[in-house]
Write a structure and sequence with these properties.
By secondary structure, the chain is of the alpha/beta class. It has 16 helices and 11 strands. Strand 2, helix 4 and strand 3 form a beta-alpha-beta unit. It binds glutamine.
């Protein structure tokens, strides 16, 4: 089939992954042609957006291509986690999620930009330059998985994988108008994922709609003997259908919906979605998560840096990527880490090392672990009365590049609403619920452990009712 006929059936901006799979199945396009169509789209739009750190030119499968965040190890393809310290590191093995994508016939189309070691909320902390938001290139795509989210919304990949420690799938999906799932902790293997905070890190899908998101999740989830924290899914993934929400009990946690700093336009869009849910048959009630929201962020910024300081100890100039020589072994390690790490990982290593140091351990790390248990219990209590909790995903729509870059605390507040449920190990789905000032607003749906099917059903029903157009206005 010639190039022109491919482009007439493949509009990468609009095509869903499910539709793309249908085209391949009916032999209307080949996998290679599909791959080429996305590469062409990237050639056109990626110079401006910088979603990709590298593209794979040769199709390596006959299915629907997938983009992978650059914290996901890929055999033979450089994997840097957005850091200079991993420049030139080419894994000799596939992460389990990359292997499962390949086994399902999905060619890897490229590796997407990320804040360095997934530490950030805007993708501005990438050592390779920021990604821009396809809705407005003056604005950030969110982070840390801004590359994956922007690639999907700009039609440079039909779907993508990200990783989420405290919001890095949900928040960029919100800011770019995508559907993104942070799965229940333990449902997706972390084998071969560049570790940030191991008790929180989860890989998950980013897509144009809920069905695509569920489909990609079904391909990567389940027990992996290489990651002992994984389990078999208690029930198979069901692709959602229909718009009926009768019988569903939706809780609206006051603190997550009324937190300081939530923009009025965000609140309006979220309330509209809640009203729609009611009209689709759901029962809606108020609930409380007082301590989760009050202490969640502080607790996260002890536990995540503590784990990061330990995980990042392995970058010593000997085993991976960059080495800067010195007079002695010690000097070589010092220089390598000084040159190789950017400011944010250094900040986290210092925070984490401090929180773990003798004399402070109980007061900081130990106390944060106890608060984490309180957060999990508060959520569990809410799920005795409700099936799903809803809130905005991000307090704001996409902000301007540079707006928060100089103020780490302002940046950390971007994740105020996503972090508590991550601390509790719970799944969360972002579903676009409208626009504010011409930019996407994301609705966060949180469920108990292993409730992904309920989140998909709720998200799909709302998505149909809302009718959000995921193609950025300026690209239509
Ligand atoms: N923005 C949060 C942080 O900087 C979360 C990042 C993530 O989920 N990887 O830690």
């Amino acid at each position: 089939m010639g190039v022109s006929s491919v482009s007439s059936v493949v509009d990468t901006l609009r095509l869903t992954a499910e539709e793309a799979a249908g085209l391949v199945e009916r032999k209307e396009v080949t996998g290679a042609e599909l791959h080429r169509a996305y590469l062409d789209a990237a050639a056109e739009r990626d110079p401006e957006l910088h979603c990709y750190l590298r593209l794979v030119d040769e199709p390596n499968g006959d299915g629907v291509p997938v983009a992978l965040k650059d914290v996901i190890s890929t055999h033979g393809i450089e994997t840097t986690a957005g850091s200079k310290i991993l420049a030139g590191y080419v894994p000799q093995f596939d992460s389990t999620v990359a292997a499962r994508c390949k086994a399902a016939g999905l060619p890897i189309i490229g590796k997407t930009n990320t804040d360095e070691f997934a530490m950030g909320s805007s993708t501005e902390n990438s050592a390779y330059g920021p990604t821009r938001n396809p809705w407005d290139p003056e604005r950030v795509p969110g982070g840390s998985g801004g590359g994956s989210a922007a690639a999907v919304s700009a039609g440079l990949a039909p779907w993508a994988l990200g990783s989420d420690t405290g919001g890095s799938i949900k928040q960029p999906s919100a800011l770019c108008g995508n559907v993104g799932l942070r799965p229940t902790y333990g449902t997706v293997s972390r084998y071969g994922i560049v570790a940030f905070a191991s008790s929180l890190d989860q890989v998950g899908p980013v897509a144009k709609n809920v069905r695509d998101c569920a489909l990609l999740y079904s391909l990567i989830a389940g027990r992996d003997e290489r990651d002992s924290t994984t389990v078999e899914l208690p029930e198979p993934v069901r692709l959602p259908e229909g718009e009926d929400l009768s019988g569903l009990r939706i809780g609206v946690p006051k603190e997550l919906n009324e937190a300081e700093g939530i923009e009025p336009g965000v609140t309006t869009a979220v309330q509209n979605a809640i009203e729609l849910a009611r009209s689709l048959g759901a029962e809606v009630g108020e609930c409380e998560l007082p301590r989760s929201v009050e202490y969640g962020l502080a607790c996260y910024y002890l536990i995540a840096p503590a784990e990061a300081s330990s995980n990042l100890a392995r970058y010593d100039g000997v085993r991976y990527g960059l080495r800067v020589d010195g007079e002695s072994y010690r000097e070589m390690v010092e220089r390598t880490r000084d040159v190789g790490f950017g400011d944010e990982p250094k900040r986290r290593i210092m925070l984490g090392t401090y929180a773990l140091s003798a004399g402070y351990f109980d007061a900081f790390y130990g106390q944060a672990q106890k608060v984490r248990t309180v957060i999990a219990r508060e959520h569990a209590a809410a799920f005795e009365r409700f099936d799903v909790l809803v809130s905005p995903t991000s307090p704001t729509v996409a902000f301007k590049l540079g707006e928060k870059a100089a103020n780490p605390l302002a940046m950390y507040l971007s994740d105020l609403l996503t972090i508590p449920s991550c601390m509790a190990g719970l799944p969360g789905l972002n579903v676009p619920c409208g626009l504010s000032e011409g930019l996407p607003v994301g609705l966060q749906l949180i469920g108990p452990q292993f409730s992904e099917n309920t989140l998909f059903r709720t998200g799909h029903a709302l998505e149909q009712a809302i009718g959000f157009d995921p193609v950025p206005e300026r690209l239509r």
